[in-house]
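Progress note, sequence design subtask.
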């Protein structure tokens, strides 16, 4: 029998632990810089960085750059989703197709997306198309693999039962396969969203495509260290916001799935 209020403590503990870890990290950052462990020229203090970020947030340039980064991220992730989910369902549903495409997948998947930047310079150029391609390429693979695993993990008894009741292939896909693989696809989306953001920012940083990465590149070129760290923090907050949004949608959309039910102590 659980103690009174145990459920509340269980719900609060992860949030309290996360807040405490963030506070400890910020305090350590401030101390390392202020006490000279690392020079403030190389690592601005936490308070200095956040003041710089607040100052940048008062400008239209910052929000325009943030919007461009979000645009590149969203278009890249959307393109990856449109391609990876149907292909993953096809390859996961067919043993023959899975075996046929296994070698190309294992050949292409380990290629670092950043290694494609010189090729993009020569083909698509330094524009939004290169950013979208780079983000989509990186996000495609985790989403594809998760979708394939999700389809292959469907209970064969459920498939055989539906087949024995005369349910056609398309209806089996809609009623049995997709509901069972949705948790895997949701996890793949969460992973792919972070990868897409990293690569959208990378394209801006190294290819000069407008966005937060381009502003950071300019700031680094002029030795504006405070701005560089402020932009890094801003990108981190953007990644955190994306994670929270995707996790919230996943929890609400998959309330019926055992993985989203609170464990009973």
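Output:
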């Amino acid at each position: 029998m659980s103690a009174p209020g145990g459920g509340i403590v269980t719900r609060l503990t992860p949030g309290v632990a996360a807040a405490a870890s963030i506070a400890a990290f910020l305090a350590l950052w401030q101390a390392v810089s202020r006490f000279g462990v690392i020079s403030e020229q190389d690592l601005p203090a936490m308070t200095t960085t956040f003041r710089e970020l607040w100052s940048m947030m008062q400008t239209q340039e910052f929000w325009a750059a943030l919007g461009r980064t979000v645009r590149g991220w969203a278009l890249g992730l959307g393109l990856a989703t449109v391609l990876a989910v149907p292909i993953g369902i096809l390859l996961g549903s067919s043993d023959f197709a899975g075996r046929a495409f296994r070698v190309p997948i294992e050949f292409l998947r380990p290629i670092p997306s950043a290694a494609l930047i010189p090729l993009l310079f020569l083909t698509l150029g330094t524009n939004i198309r290169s950013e979208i391609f780079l983000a989509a390429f990186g996000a495609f693979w985790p989403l594809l693999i998760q979708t394939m695993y999700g389809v292959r993990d469907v209970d064969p008894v459920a498939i055989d039962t539906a087949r024995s009741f005369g349910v056609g292939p398309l209806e089996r896909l809609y009623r049995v396969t997709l509901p069972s693989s949705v948790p895997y696809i949701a996890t793949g989306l969460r992973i792919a969203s972070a990868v897409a953001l990293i690569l959208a920012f990378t394209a801006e940083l190294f290819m000069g495509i407008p966005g937060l990465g381009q502003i950071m590149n300019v700031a680094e070129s002029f030795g504006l260290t405070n701005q560089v760290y402020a932009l890094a923090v801003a990108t981190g907050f953007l990644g955190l916001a994306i994670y929270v949004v995707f996790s919230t949608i996943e929890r609400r959309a998959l309330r019926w799935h055992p993985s989203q039910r609170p464990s009973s102590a």
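The chain has two domains: 1-38, 46-260. Work on this subtask will continue into the next period as scheduled.
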